[in-house]
Design brief:
It contains seven helices and no strands. It is mainly α.
Amino acid sequence: MFLEKLKEFPKNKILILITIIAFLSFLLIQVIVMGPIESELKSSTGYGVLEFEFAWVPEVINNIFAAWGSEGIAKEIFATYIDFLYLLGYSIFGFGLVLIPIRWAEGKLQEIGLFMSLTPLIAGVFDVIENIHLLIMLGNSSLIQPFIPFVASLSAVIKFGFLFVGIIFLVIALLLMLISRLKKKTE
């Protein structure tokens, strides 16, 4: 089974290196591009990327675009294209962050953890779907079909849901592994 191969592939050193590189890449993109654009749009118009992602209906999109103007829309187009690189960074980082400790787990926890290591990657897939729909709206702001913002917002909800589940699992798994180790030391 594919998930079983994740116990050994890629090798630990390579997995750790990939995870570090992914973390640094998404951190740099956040600090250099995403953060400043988000901060500027949000402070000058009241609307940032999260409001755009969760607009759900064309009327809200139209309000956001009116507030942003052509300059803000151009900045968001740039940020959305950069987000394709950003999502690679956070999804690969999240994958490694879950997989590395799960390799030392045992039994059911490891079995579930191998599956859960995929949640950041699945989140990345939904981020791609979201970005495509955001770009459709940004590229044709005069005629936005109702299903486009709906699909973008639904994809964002699913994306954040998978990220949330992965993070919660990681915290619980680490606690269970710590408790297991402490029990073994006291026995």
